[in-house]
Amino acid sequence: MTARIFRGREELAAVAPDDRGLAYGDGVFETMRVHRGEVPWWDAHWRRLALGASRLQIALPPARQAREVARALFDDAGDGVLKLLLSRGAGGRGYAPPAESVPTWILSRHPLPRPARGGVSLHWCDVRLAVQPALAGIKHCNRLEQVLARAECDRAGADEGLLRDADGYVVSATAANLFVLSGDRWLTPPVDRCGVAGTCRAALLAPLSARETSLAKEDVERADAVFLCNAVRGILPVARLGARRWPVHPGVAAAQASLARLHPGFRLDAPALDDLNT
């Protein structure tokens, strides 16, 4: 990993020990796929970063400087993953945010995940997502629910896990959004009470004519096809969930073709992805 750290416009050697992102998860982040040195969905990621920063009342990094640093990290025109983390910055002990703060932001370069080999296996997680509309949709830095669920998946020997809210409705995977095919219609859970409104999910809604609707556990298990998606890994076909098995479905292949037209990193001849710990 290569990283650069800033406080406002000033570059730093390290994060301050009293940074509120470190202490309380007081921040937001974006994880982006880089293709040949460029971030094709930069604008979409920046809009979601801005939405999250607005919710938390944190100032955004200087937009032009952030873009220049991102390009400098990939000045070899390589492929990879770019992570942008924005915290409220340094502050004293206690939850109350300081009246004045200068945000800390970090840009880091990471390798692409490994190529996939077949569909992924899923596990129903016992961990539930708390309902909190004030944080729903944004990619805030407090991911302890996902950390616990991810550990649960590893213990179960599954590639990924599906998370439900306190009422039992399906929300997402630990690090991806969920789409299920019912007949000829793609469905995806809403993320207005909890969960992350993924940029890949947003890009696919219109091309797939997908409908947002509440899904119960049984709706997923009896679906004709299931896939996961996020902005780094693209579309991941699901092969197994408990006792349920899904063969390769043409609807998933069509969705992958749609995504390939929206992002050059997901062309059908580009490497597929299977590392689910991004």
List key phrases describing it:
278 residues, alpha+beta, D-amino Acid Aminotransferase, Chain A, domain 1, D-amino Acid Aminotransferase, Chain A, domain 2, 2 domains, nine-stranded mixed beta sheet, five-stranded antiparallel beta sheet, 14 strands, globular, disordered C terminus
Q: What would you note in describing this structure?
A:
It is a single chain. With 278 residues, the chain is of the alpha+beta class. It has two domains: 2-110, D-amino Acid Aminotransferase, Chain A, domain 1; 120-266, D-amino Acid Aminotransferase, subunit A, domain 2 (D-amino Acid Aminotransferase, Chain A, domain 2, Alpha-Beta Barrel). The protein has seven helices and 14 strands. It has helices spanning 20-24, 42-56, 63-73, 144-156, 199-205, 217-221, 250-262, and strands spanning 2-7, 10-12, 27-34, 80-87, 104-110, 120-129, 160-165, 170-173, 177-182, 185-188, 211-212, 225-230, 234-241, 244-245. Strands 6, 7, 8, 9, 10, 11, 12, 13 and 14 form a nine-stranded mixed β-sheet that branches. A hairpin with a 2-residue loop joins strand 9 (177-182) and strand 10 (185-188). The chain is globular and about 55 Å long. The protein starts with a strand and ends in a 16-residue tail after the last helix. The model is unreliable at 270-278 (pLDDT under 50).
